[in-house]
Amino acid sequence: MTTLILAGNWKMHHGPASARSLMDTFLDGYEPHTGREVWFFPPAISLADVARAIEGHVGLRAGAQNVHWEATGAFTGETSVAMVREAGGTAVLVGHSERRHVFGETNEETAKKVTAVLAGGLRPVLCVGERLEERERGETEPVVLRQLDAALGGISSRDWTHLVIAYEPVWAIGTGRTATPGDAAAVHGTIRAWCESRGAGARVPVLYGGSVKPSNVAELVAEDEIDGVLVGGASIDAESWRAIVRVGLD
Ligand code: PGA
Residue 168: CB within 6 Å of ligand 1? Predict the structure, then answer.
């Protein structure tokens, strides 16, 4: 059985105090379930607080939303992999569409970040996805494959088991528009086939992201190809997040 991964990307919401209060509310009555993990991606400044809050809980993980590939140096405003680890993080989002399209991150930078995260012993969650005009031109598949080739070209055979991929169509992020479960599953199938063709022995978890909410999460994770979800807006409120992580349990 594959593990269901429910990951929340808080984006630029919740500083340390509100992160602690959200975690208190979320953890009050939270029960772990076999085969299910809940991952939190708070802003870097709140990571240590979230990591501390989940200490001793089974199936919970905290991570960073971004990282720099260098270990130390004159990189004002950046965070290294070792710093994420020291703060208690064990995963990092890499190449999120806001990093790519708002901050101009290139495929080459994304590749360097994946390499640094893996070298530092953390789990990269590589985000890929096409923009609306690319989907309308029928280019979803080549765009996603190009992003995979660029970011994962140098991955070594032992790294596959640490990798997570999130398919997030850019037009579905924060817009209220979700890919249909069938459309998402088709792209997930393409991603999985690419991983297998590059020598991934084990199944690489492929998450779906883009306007996931309590009302649509069940039909998405019902697809065999969808191993979990990466959730933005609906993860920053404890009640909607609790509803999402309980998908299929009630
Ligand atoms: P959204 O964001 O759920 O608010 O659409 C998803 C993401 O950006 O990871």
Answer: yes
Q: Is 249 helix (H, G, I), strand (E, B) or coil?
A: coil
Cα separation, 114 vs 120, in Å, equals 10
Mean pLDDT across 10-28? 97
Q: What 3-state class would DSSP assign to 105? A: coil
The pick from 231, 241, 244 for probing ligand 1's pocket by mutation, whose C-beta has the most ligand atoms within 8 angstroms, reads 231
Neighbours of 239 (CB within 10 A): 11
Active site residues: 96, 168
> Nearest residue CA, atom 6 of ligand 1?
232
Q: What is the length of the chain? A: 250
Cα–Cα distance for residue pair 104/118, rounded to 1 Å:
22
**In the chain, where does DSSP find H-type helix?**
16-27, 47-54, 81-86, 97-101, 107-119, 132-136, 140-152, 181-197, 217-221, 238-245
pLDDT in tens, 136-165: 999 999 999 999 999 998 888 889 999 999
Burial of 145: CB neighbours in 10 Å, binned 0-12, 13-18, 19+: middle
Question: 204-237 in b/e burial notation, b at 16+ Cβ within 10 A?
Answer: bbbbbbbbbbbebbeebbebebbbbbbbbbbbbe
| C-alpha to C-alpha distance for 128 and 87, rounded to whole angstroms | 26
Ligand 1 atom closest to 234 (CA): 3
